[in-house]
Amino acid sequence: MGRIHDKILHAVNQQSYQPMKARILARRLGLAGGAYGEFRTALNDLVQQGRIEINNSQAIRKSGAKPSLKGTYRTMSSGGGFVKPSPVDGVASPEIRIFPENSNNAANGDLVAIQILRRGNADRPPTGQIISVMERKSHQFVGTYWEKAGEGFVKVDGAVFSQSIVIGDPTTKNVKPGDKVVFDMIRFPSPEERGEGVITELLGPQGDPGVETLAIIRSYNLPDVFPPDVLDEAHHVAENFSEQDFDGRVDYTKHTVVTVDPIDAKDFDDAVQVELDPASGHWTLWVHIADVAHFVKQGGALDREARSRATSIYLPGKVIPMFPETISNHLASLQQDKVRYVQTVIIDFDPKGRKTTVSFERGVIKVKKRFHYEQLMAFLDKTPEAPEVPADIGAMLERMKALAIILRGRRFHRGSLELDMPEAKLEFDKDGRVSGAHNSVNDLSHQIIEEFMLAANEAVAEQLHNLGVKFLRRIHPDPEPSKQKAFAAFVRTLGYQIDNPEDRFTLQRILAESSHKPEKHAVHYAMLRSLKQAIYSEKEEGHYALASTYYCHFTSPIRRYPDLTIHRQLTRWKRTGKASYDETELMFLGEHCSGMERRAALAERDLVKVKLLEFMSKQLGEHKMAIITGVAEYGFFAQIVDLPVEGMVHITTLNDDNYLFDAESHSLTGLKFKRRYRLGDKVEVEIAKVDMAKKQMDLRPVISMEEQKKKPTRK
Q1: Mean per-residue pLDDT over the chain, rounded
Q2: Backbone region of residue 323 per phi and psi (left: phi > 0; alpha: psi in -120 to 50; beta: other values)
């Protein structure tokens, strides 16, 4: 949509606007004379879209046919975004898709008023336009400085604003063209004039790896510095810690306890031990979790800052911890051969893996051996790279494997769903630039620890539920039936039999049947899109994907604040027999922690994308295999197979045929040659263009010579 469309909409939606005829409005907008033809064309477009109306007296007025809603705007890196409408009379509405041309210069997190342009259905969300920005989330933005005719401008990172922002007196920060800067928006842009800002911080030259990381930190307002009182409290706690003080704790320091973590981990939250009673065949699992609550007093400076951050943030090449490193990487971290305080869950299982008894203790451990996942897997596979370990530890590792396999089998027997969505890990050169990537693995070594952590989380949640107290659960709501029906319709187009898409065992079967077939990616992506997002909440709901009735996060208090609240409730219950928590406080805390979790995920994804786009910008014209991750009327999105970076193939580049979009099968199909692009399909693409400012990559499909020789399909 062009600037003339924007000007008309801006004028008509002003509160002071009075309906007027076309020529009068054109004159007021400076579009009379030679520009009047373009004005009339834009006017007709807006009428057809239902965004303005012409009444019986031929006067132009804003559309009154569709009532407006308000909600929070969430941007997407590909442009445009979604608005989650505020509940009306307690009833939630579905998210509204906002295309870039309808965003009205709204930024991520803004409270906006919207109008519905097209109702949604089972196959697609409703679409709308942002009428006005009611409240700005932030006035701080990040972008790249440039100059023209002696005037300074900043091109804001991402597809937020369509035009650059005018900057007054950039010389005060010694800014040079090409520098990344932080600026405060003094006047937001409108169709009539550019926005205006003032530079508050010079980050450095665009393209420098450290500068790009800092730009993401500032864009998302991530807290990268701890206040002095927080650091002071952390140092005070460390100075007063004594490894000889076991008072009120169970001594586990002589037990065979191990940790298993990523090779580059520094904050060790959890340690485990497994024993088997040969007489009864019963298993005992000890899950020891760092007792962060002992060091972080509720209401103190450490607690205040951790609550605000809510989570540690893992950016490529940089970690922004929830606690200062004195706590996260030292005092609370379960390091090998160090005396450490823990909260322990002890679970007894019968030979079939059924939970029989559970107990909770405040303990002290000394980790006997630290493993990283690759070492554990090498030991279990008996490869030449396997580390040498004492006999007692080796025997326990085998017990860990046996118990985990039993627990995993029981979890899937009850209907747990597991999507195979490999996560790519970036590889960097000595200068911090991306040199490649590899997919992370989810082998048996990871699954062992996963099963033990899930068992502990469930045991704690069930205990708090049985006490009848409110606590912060990790819930995963059931999918919308309409989404499940849409998924079923899609997999039927692939030849799968599915009668009841709401039956989790049917979904399990579809995932299993597709796991070794070419359409695996299509099926797993489609199911992922049919599911809701897991959140923190005080509501008594279970976890759909895990098929778990009671679930919370308990096992990572160093990096997640909700886990810390659970630790405090357990400690209070052990000491006083009470574990209550204010329900309203939990509601707000759940919303806050869920929001901070999303912010962390978006920041990580954004920085990964920036680093990968820079890498891809040096590969223009090269051909890559990609997986289609989204399909729409205007084209499709595809992610490069060996790199977690997504680009767009616009419909205009599919110039070999006229393509028809089918929402049910999530596909674009050529009318003449019947060539099809479908969600989850692997396609060969060419890297056509990389726009670092907009954080976008354009792709073009590569059609093989055999495909080009195909003759049109006749009816």
Answers
A1: 89
A2: beta
My answer on whether 428 and 465 are in the same domain is yes
Residue 195 reports pLDDT greater than 70: yes
Total tally of structural domains belonging to the chain: 6
Q: What is the pTM of this model?
A: 0.82
Phi-psi sector, 299: left (phi>0), alpha (psi -120 to 50), beta: left
Question: 222-225: which pairs have CB atoms within 8 A and are 24 or more residues apart?
Answer: 222/313, 222/320, 222/599, 222/603, 223/305, 223/308, 223/309, 223/320, 224/320
> How many Å separate Cα 296 from the centre of its chain?
28
Give how far Cα 297 sits from Cα of 161, 181, 504, Å: 44, 38, 43
CATH number of the domain bearing residue 155 = 2.40.50.640
Closest Cα to residue 290, out of 576, 472, 559, 574? 559
Let me know whether 465 and 590 are in one domain: yes
Which residues sit opposite 130 in a β-bridge? 114
Residues in the chain, total: 715
Q: Is residue 110 part of a domain?
A: yes
Backbone angles phi, psi at 308, to 5 degrees: -65, -45
Helix axes 504-514, 520-530, angle to 10 degrees: 150
User: 504 φ, ψ to 5°?
Assistant: -65, -30
Of 15-19, 26-30, 292-296, 342-346, minimum mean pLDDT range: 15-19
Cross-sheet strand order for the sheet of 339-349: 250-251, 355-366, 339-349, 283-290, 270-276, 258-261, 369-372
CB-based contacts of 210, cutoff 8 Å, min separation 6:
204, 432
Give the C-alpha separation, 256 to 9, whole Å: 70
Strand partners, 667: 662, 678
Q: What angle do CA 39, 40, 43 make, to 5 degrees?
A: 85
User: Model confidence over 424-471: pLDDT tens digits?
Assistant: 788 888 888 888 887 788 899 999 999 999 999 999 999 999 999 999
Domain with 245, as residue range(s), is 228-391+421-474+543-602
Q: DSSP letters along 388-433, please? A: P--HHHHHHHHHHHHHHHHHHHHHHHTT--------EEEEE-TTS-
Q: Which of 51, 52, 49, 66 is nearest to 22 (CA)?
A: 52
Please check whether residue 329 is in contact with residue 267, taking contact to mean a CB–CB distance below 8 angstroms: yes
The whole-angstrom separation of Cα 259 and Cα 627 is 36
Taking the C-alpha atoms of residue 208 and residue 317, their distance in angstroms, rounded to an integer, is 13
Spatial distance between the Cα atoms of 207 and 209, rounded to a whole number of angstroms: 6
Contact 673, 713 (CB under 8 A): yes
Q: Is 299 helix (H, G, I), strand (E, B) or coil?
A: coil
One domain, residues 691 and 645: yes
